[in-house]
Each structure stands twice: as structure tokens, then as C-alpha cells.
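#struct-queue
[09:14] JT: dropping the first one here, sequence first, then the C-alpha cells:
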Amino acid sequence: MNARAVPILPALSITETRDFYVKAGFQVRFFDDAHYGYLIVERDGIELQFFRHNTLNPLTNDHGAYVRCDEVDAVPEIFAPLGLPDHGVPRFTAPEDRPWRMREAYLVDLNGNLLRFGQPIG
């Protein structure tokens, strides 16, 4: 079986979420903020789907996804156009070696969703 998992994440605003990810170079595959409140974006084989969640609190959101990649040190270039700080919401944390033998970078988007980008170490 050839399969892959795609996260479906909450978004307070589908339009603002689209704009956030487009600025980072993602392509919009589906967008409907009027009826369905749904968004699909994709970049470099990463597909993210979002549903509108009108009462979402980005500061307490506990949704996320793990993205395995082969060049985690290239991830900061993707999100550099957003000019994100390393604290607060949204934020970006640069790649760092973790005790669980993964090199990881973290993005917390404007909705509080955590995307962990990881690459095995040695």
C-alpha cells in the first residue's frame, strides 16, 4: 500500500491562513471561505488542510503535525519571508539537534498550529 497522511488543522480565518502560507511560497489547491470554510495548500510535497474554527484560540490551540524532511536546515528559508519572531504566536524556531536523535525546526502558525520539521541525526 502506498499511502500518506495529511493533517487537517483548525483556522480562525481561512483567508488570513491562506495569505500566511502563500507568503511562505505554498500554492493554494482549494480555497472557500464563504461556504465550506476550507483551505488546502501545498509546497515541496507538504500538503496542509485547514477548516474554519470560529472559536479557536491560537494561544491554547493544541493541534499540529510532524513533517519529516531530508534537509531541515533549508526550512528557515521557506518561512523567512514571514519575518517571524522566535517567541509568541506566530513564531519560528530554527533547526536544533534534539535528544531523541532528530534535528528539528518548529513553526507555530497564526492559528497556533505547531508544525515540527524533523530530520534523523546520523
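[09:21] JT: and here's the second one, same format:
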Amino acid sequence: MSKIEEVRNAMIAAMKAGDKQTKESLSMLLAALKNKAIDKRADLNAEEEIQVVLKEIKQTKETLEMTPADRTDIIEECRKRLSVLEQYAPKLMDETEIREIIRETLIELGMDAPAAKEKGKIMKALMPKVKGKADGKLVNEILTGFLK
């Protein structure tokens, strides 16, 4: 079953249950998935579906970060939306897994003590390995800790 069918079925279940917030979150995700498929002019593969879900999660997190603290209604809505969206995202790597992949990549590139100016080269080799499996921001922060 594709993500579009999965999300549509969950949205119908939320409508029947009268859960308006979940239904709206799923509706937005469904629209994003359909728009991506329309742009591509073909069905999405599993990796592309995951990218759409992760993009929606990232946008919701950015909205949450930029929302003033006194706007509790928006904050609560974003948190609810995140909890719904995260059900459709793959489990992301934790810090220790990311550190291990960074070590492996540094060994592959033959770098014992990488300098800050080599960060771009390292990221270029590293990101294809973690794309869709780890938060890019977290990968960047951890890699910065490895640099001299």
C-alpha cells in the first residue's frame, strides 16, 4: 500500500472518529504527497514519499520555532500535527549511529584529523548515506564536533 492510500485511509478513519485536528494534518500530508506525484507526473516511490513526509515535518518544526511563546493555540496545533506526521516518517538515526557513519566516512576519505575547510567534501560523501535516515541539521552539528 502506498503512503497516499495509507494516509487517505487514516484520514477517513479520523473523519469517522470526529478527530478534526488529525484529519486536517492528514489532509495536508495527502495534498503534499499528491502534489509531488503531479509534479513528477508519475507515482512516487517509497523514498520520495518519505522525503515528502520529512519535508512536512521540517516545515512544521520551523513554524513551531518561529511562533511567539504567547501564541499557545499555534504551538499546540503544530505539536499535534508533528505527532500525526511522525507516525508516517521512518525512525531517524540517533547520535551514536550518526557518529559511527561519520567515522566510517572519514576512514573512507582517509582523513584522521579533518580541518574545518574540508567540511564540504565530507558532507558531500556523508549526506547520501544518511539522507532520509537522519536529520541533516543534527548530522552537521555532530560533524562540526569532529573537525579541528
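[09:30] RK: nice, looked through the second one.
[09:31] RK: The radius of gyration is 19 Å.
[09:31] JT: good to know. The first helix runs from residue 3 to 17.
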